Automatic annotation (TrEMBL):
This is MBL fold metallo-hydrolase. GO terms for molecular function: hydrolase activity; metal ion binding. It catalyses: 3',5'-cyclic UMP + H2O = UMP + H(+); 3',5'-cyclic CMP + H2O = CMP + H(+). It comes from Paenibacillus anaericanus. Residues 14-192 form the Metallo-beta-lactamase domain. Counteracts the endogenous Pycsar antiviral defense system. Phosphodiesterase that enables metal-dependent hydrolysis of host cyclic nucleotide Pycsar defense signals such as cCMP and cUMP. Pfam families: Lactamase_B. Its cofactor is Zn(2+). Keywords: Hydrolase, Metal-binding, Zinc.
């Protein structure tokens, strides 16, 4: 059964939040519910949210976590290297852009994500790849031929590495040694901007050719 994927560009940075459903369309998973999540919250009325899964914990990817987890009573998954970012505005970057966001804080994640982990949610299996560089705990999640990569790989671009915890060498290593080893047909759903494919980026991305 194919994954049903809906995209919501949220907040001042137009961060992509993804609403995923399987065969039972009454159950869903949310990846990266960002700031100003009103459109997403209206869409999930009547849905059971099995989990919120975070590719990383920068403010523009977590701004809607607190409201949605309280509304739906769902657990949050996040890599352990960013476990204290949800509770700490200085770490998640929300203090750096006061014009874009108030300080963002919520409770810690219920579950850690780790390299090689397999999550069984909404009748599908998601494989976790630890892909640091944009942030130390960045992960990418592969479900079939769909990859949810956060701010690691974009269409003709890569994630920035000048934020706290970013490291350029790690980013390029994550892309080359993990993401570019996936099948060319794998569709990449990034944290910002349009989707792409692994094959297209291997052939055309000027940053990692």
């Amino acid at each position: 059964m194919m994954l049903k994927i809906e995209t919501f560009a949220l907040g001042p940075l137009q961060t992509n939040a993804y609403l995923l459903r399987g065969e039972d369309e009454s159950k869903a998973v949310i990846i990266d519910p960002g700031t100003n999540p009103g459109s997403l919250i209206r869409r999930i009325e009547g849905l059971e949210i099995e989990a919120i899964v975070l590719t990383h914990a920068h403010f523009d990817h977590i701004g809607g976590v607190d409201e949605i987890r309280k509304l739906k009573g769902c657990p949050v998954y996040l890599h352990a290297l960013e476990s204290d970012w949800l509770t700490t505005p200085k770490l998640n970057g929300s203090l750096m852009w006061p014009d874009a966001t108030p300080p963002v804080m919520t409770d810690p994640a219920e579950y850690d994500l780790a390299e090689g982990q397999r999550l069984k949610l909404i009748g599908h299996e998601f494989t976790v790849y630890h892909t640091p560089g944009h942030s130390p705990g960045s992960v990418s999640l592969l479900c079939g031929n769909d990859l949810f990569g956060g701010d690691v790989l974009f269409r003709l671009g890569v994630g920035r590495t000048d934020l706290p915890g970013g490291r350029e060498a790690d980013l390029y290593n994550s892309i080359r040694s993990k993401l570019f080893r996936l099948d060319d047909e794998v569709k990449v759903y990034p944290g910002h901007g349009p989707k792409t494919t692994i094959g297209y980026e291997k052939a055309n991305n000027p940053y990692v050719r």
